[in-house]
Amino acid sequence: MANSFDSKLELSKVPHEPGVYRYFDEHDEVIYVGKAKDLRNRVGSYFVKSNQHDRKTKRLVSQIRRLEFTIVPTEWDALLLENQLIKRFQPRFNILLRDDKTYPFICITFERFPRVITTRRVDRKVGTYYGPFANLRAMYALLDMFRALYTIRSCHLNLSEENVASGKYKVCLEFHIGNCKGPCEARVAEEDYNAEIEQVHHILKGNLSLPQGYFKKKMLEAAERMAFEEAHQWKGKLELLDNFQNKATVVSPRVGDVDVLTIVSDEEAAYLNYMKVTNGYVVATQTFDIKKKLDESDEELLAMLLVEMRATYGGESKELISNIKPNLELKMEVTIPQIGDKKKLLDMSMKNVMYFRHEKAERKALENTANASRKDRVLIKLKTDLQLKALPRHIECFDNSNIQGTNPVAAMVCFKEGRPSKKDYRHFTIKTVVGANDFASMKEVVGRRYSRVLTEGDALPDLIVIDGGKGQLSSSCEALKELGLYGQVPIIGIAKRLEEIYFPEDTLPLYIDKKSESLKLIQQIRDEAHRFAITYHRDKRSRTSLVSELENVEGIGKKTAAKLLKHFRSLRAIRESTPEQLAEVVGQDRALKVKKYFETMAGE
């Protein structure tokens, strides 16, 4: 279908304003969403000098059938709207702002006597969410600390005032072992319980000074009352919190609240690290990669992913630290620090993103090596074992098949890159040899095969394998000599009894280690050739017996019998055919004779 999109006409309707544009295909589906500081200039760039676009952008332009746009006050508003529309429509030419992984959150519920739970589903009506936590170990360390510091309930009971007042619930084991203060029986005041929950909120926000002040105050109050055991318990909690603070990633309280987002990329993907810093603490961090769809610049991707990360992690800071500046006006200050604590933050983020990129590249290389080198490893081993000059990526193997000298046939199987290439398999019916003569038969089929290869200009194999010992190998070499190919293609014979490998003009065989992968590959190729030859032999023998059966009919010879089998495919189909159907192939007189023969046979 030709592109019916009139770009000049449509561009005349587009204003020089900031906004978001949407491209639709012939099925009226959104295929791309983009933002722009100047809509007309940006949209026009797709249709002016289109021959300079990369392959992916050319494919996008070729599928555009309709254009829509939305004008917004600022470029920042365009970025926010673009983010929402990409999530809504998920256009195939856009980078989809989502992760295959679902990371968990810590949620503090809105219930009476709130709980602290983990969840992968976010419902803002249920509670206040912190996260997501890309590092599960860090999340569980936090939860363990909360259990040690506070006595927060873990049950799912509905602790409404009515239920508690009516005595509907009884304290459980958690109360008796000191992990819960028993709000289900009103053994703790709601105000005291919520004071602890408030401490959890502060810690998750990265504000440790308030919980520390709270524990210190409680410790001193207990000491003044001479309640030294209680004071010691508060001191233990304060030390636990101090220990957590020492282990937490702290840059400097002077840094305050900032977002850090760094990016490096190659032609295929971009790699990013995001860090949310609150009061100088790194409270959330995630490193990830995204696959490019079009030729997106690092500046475009950084702005796009900044919106996504701030929405995911609840970022509200007024400053972004990055290694590049986005090419649009953000509602926050963008800093590329050169010295000081902020430079340390930038270096930490860049170290993470570079390590992640390196790790991804290594993993991909290992996967490619595992896939490629598994076959290459065997071929390299085979090359070494057989002392070949090149990797045997293309191997052809021949086998003869005859039973008691009848219907002699041969088969050739082909392996490429260590795997069967069945479209290149070939069958041979022996034409010049009378009786069971394996040596002469092998010479015939090898000669026929490579005579045809030379005539048609096809590629010669890297290795020829002959199923048989010195006799079959010598006959095959004679065929190659007659074609002028001897010495050009490596050829070996494999004898079945002891799996001996024979080379031309060498009386002593080679014995490859029975556990060697290279021998197993040769055996696999040899067995496949044998299977293929046997199958063909059985088919041919079966067909011969059917022809012989039909020759019992008066007036039916080999040619007519073969003609019937070719048309009806089986003896049963011939037997069940009507005289009229048979007459179409062999004439009315012979058709009646065939029909009468099978009726007589059925009556006996």
Features:
alpha+beta, GIY-YIG endonuclease, 7-stranded mixed sheet, DNA binding, 604 residues, DNA repair, excinuclease ABC activity, cytoplasm, SOS response
Quick summary of this structure?
The protein is of the alpha+beta class.
Q: In words, what does this structure look like?
A:
Strands 12, 13, 14, 15, 16, 17 and 18 form a seven-stranded mixed beta sheet that branches. The chain has a five-stranded mixed beta sheet with strand order 9-8-7-10-11, with helices on both faces. It has a three-stranded antiparallel beta sheet with strand order 2-1-3. By secondary structure, it is of the alpha+beta class. Helix content is 46%, strand content 18%. It folds into five domains: 7-89, GIY-YIG endonuclease; 105-247, no CATH class; 255-360, 2-Layer Sandwich (Nucleotidyltransferase, domain 5), CATH 3.30.420; 394-541, 2-Layer Sandwich (Nucleotidyltransferase, domain 5), CATH 3.30.420.340; 551-603, DNA polymerase, domain 1. It has helices at residues 7-11, 39-44, 55-62, 75-89, 136-149, 161-165, 173-176, 190-204, 209-224, 228-247, 298-313, 340-386, 438-456, 470-483, 517-550, 558-568, 571-576, 579-586, 588-603, and strands spanning 19-24, 30-36, 66-71, 105-109, 116-119, 127-130, 258-265, 269-278, 281-291, 319-321, 333-335, 394-403, 406-416, 419-420, 426-429, 463-467, 491-495, 500-502. Helix 12 packs across helix 15. Strand 16, helix 14 and strand 17 form a beta-alpha-beta unit. The chain is elongated. The two termini are 68 Å apart. It comes from Rhabdobacter roseus. One of its GO terms (cellular component) is excinuclease repair complex. It is found in: Cytoplasm.
